[in-house]
Amino acid sequence: MTSLYKNKNITIIGLGKTGLSCIDYLQSEGANIRIIDTRQNPKGADQLPKNIPLHIGGLNQQWLLESDMIVISPGLAVKTPEIQTALSAGVEVVGDIELFCRAAAKPIVAITGSNGKSTVTTLVYEMAKAAGVKVGMGGNIGIPALSLLKDDCDLYVLELSSFQLETTYSLKAAAATVLNVTEDHMDRYVDLEDYRRAKLRIYHNAQTAVVNNEDKLTFGEGENQAKQTVCFAEHDADYRLKIENGKQYLMAKDEVILPCDEATLVGRHNYMNILAGTALAQAIGIDLSAIRTALRQFKGLDHRFQLAHQAHGVRWVNDSKATNVGSTVAALEGLTVEGKLHLLLGGDGKGADFSELATLINRPNIICYCFGRDGAQLAALSPQSHLFGTMEQAVEFLRPALSAGDMVLLSPACASLDQFASFEKRGEEFTRLAKLS
User: Fold this and answer.
1) Active site residues
2) Which of 5, 32, 55, 324 lies 20 to 30 Å from 280 when distance is taken between CA atoms?
3) Cα-Cα-Cα-Cα dihedral of 36, 196, 198, 145, to 10°?
4) What is the pLDDT of residues 21-64, one digit of tens each?
5) Tens digits of residue pLDDT in 324-349
6) 245-253, long-range: CB < 8 A, 24+ apart
7) What's the average model confidence in pLDDT over 291-305?
8) Fold topology of 99-297
């Protein structure tokens, strides 16, 4: 079969893992490739084949205009003036997920949302594996999507960000979900509706949509609607919770998935993740016995409400993946702590409105320790707050105040990049500090 890209002049913007996967794929397709990275010392430059030209430190408008196609990094907005100039000149602009969707010949489960998407993506992957399906997982989590094409999978499970969806046109998901929509990346979008519209693109040409009945912003509309829809919620939904004789159950329509106490994931927000994952898995024909097996074994993801350390009756919980307000709200809702909750907040808020946290943190047993770029804004939400330059200073301050029954929770409601290389590095530092107790 003739390649779509043979002898085409293609400029890839952004190196790193995803950029290198695009180079690998497009080289195998016979394209003429150039690379642009706006950083002075891009990650992955040392792995670049010598025959591929590289422009660093900014965008090269001439290269962009000479391209048949631009493959843009999710980190660069399509609204960037140089990209708009290229679009106006008739140059096609896509992302790596679009290249993947054109090439993938097997069903795709697509997952997005402001919070919970990595957990749900991994759950569906584990459910498929438990059913004996040859499944690949990637996208915004772990492996770049294009790298999955080498593995001859029978199913792909993709976590997709709003940034990736902006430049994706050919996705026809077998099952797709927007788990929730709360403020995030407000430094990139005009408003919440602009951000939501990017998310809803996941439903375009989808077979089954899984929507959140507690969040109407997750419902498809216009051309971004699936052929059929199922819903999840705590009550009044296809996938829901049920209490009988004082015991709580996870339900798929009229069938019991599991009693809640048999699932390894705990907390209301995780029960919602399980319901969404089960709905997606059933939509592609995975049976309940495989789903149950996966749920009994799944241990959760690193840096997502994970017990980092326990000593002297104090639990240290690492929720560093809470990089936006909605994620921290989800962690705090329904959380019960025997003693005091020592909450670490702070970092780069990405222009978000923090006010939603105020009612949740203004409780007698919650003390906040705020740090980083937006620490002062967060500290202003509660009179029981302390302000520090760094997370380490905050932890050293709170340590002497700890008593048995307390919890120290890192759920920062902010990105980490003002002080850490990634949310993972922030979580690792928190765990290191916890283990000094």
Assistant:
1) 117, 140, 185
2) 324
3) 80
4) 999 999 999 999 999 999 999 988 999 999 999 999 999 999 99
5) 999 999 899 868 788 999 999 999 99
6) 250/274, 250/275, 250/278, 252/278, 252/279, 252/282, 252/288
7) 89
8) UDP-N-acetylmuramoyl-L-alanine:D-glutamate ligase (3.40.1190)
Q: What is the mean pLDDT of residues 129-151?
A: 96
**% of the chain surpassing 70 pLDDT:** 99
**What's the pLDDT at 381?**
98
Instruction: State how far the Cα of 378 lies from the Cα of 412, in Å rounded to an integer.
Output: 10
Please tell me the total number of residues recorded for the chain in this structure: 437
Q: Which two tokens stand for residue 132?
A: 């004996």
* Segment 362-372, tens digit of pLDDT: 999 999 999 99
Average pLDDT of the chain to the nearest whole number: 95
Contact 174, 158 (CB under 8 A): no
Q: Is the pLDDT of residue 266 over 80?
A: no
Q: Which residues of 181-199 are buried (b: 16+ CB within 10 A; e: fewer)?
A: bbbbbbebbeeeeebbbbb
Asked whether 146 and 99 are in contact (CB, 8 A), the reply is yes
User: Which H/E stretch holds residue 209?
Assistant: strand 208-212
Spatial contact of 232 and 239, defined as CB atoms under 8 Å apart:
yes
Closest CA to 152 of 105, 99, 100: 105
CATH of domain 306-434: 3.90.190.20
pTM for the predicted model, two decimal places: 0.82
> Which CATH number, 3.10.20.310, 3.40.50.300, 3.40.50.720, 2.60.40.290, labels domain 9-94?
3.40.50.720
Q: What is the DSSP letter of 185?
A: -
3-state secondary structure labels for all residues of 339-385: CCEEEEEECECCCCCCHHHHHHHCCCCEEEEEECCCHHHHHCCCCCE
Q: How deeply is 336 buried, as exposed, middle or buried, from its count of CB atoms within 10 A (0-12, 13-18, 19+)?
A: exposed
Q: What is the C-alpha separation between 411 and 26, in angstroms, rounded?
A: 40
pLDDT for 304: 85
Q: In the chain, what are the domain boundaries? A: 9-94, 99-297, 306-434
How far is the C-alpha of 66 from the C-alpha of 11, rounded, in Å? 9
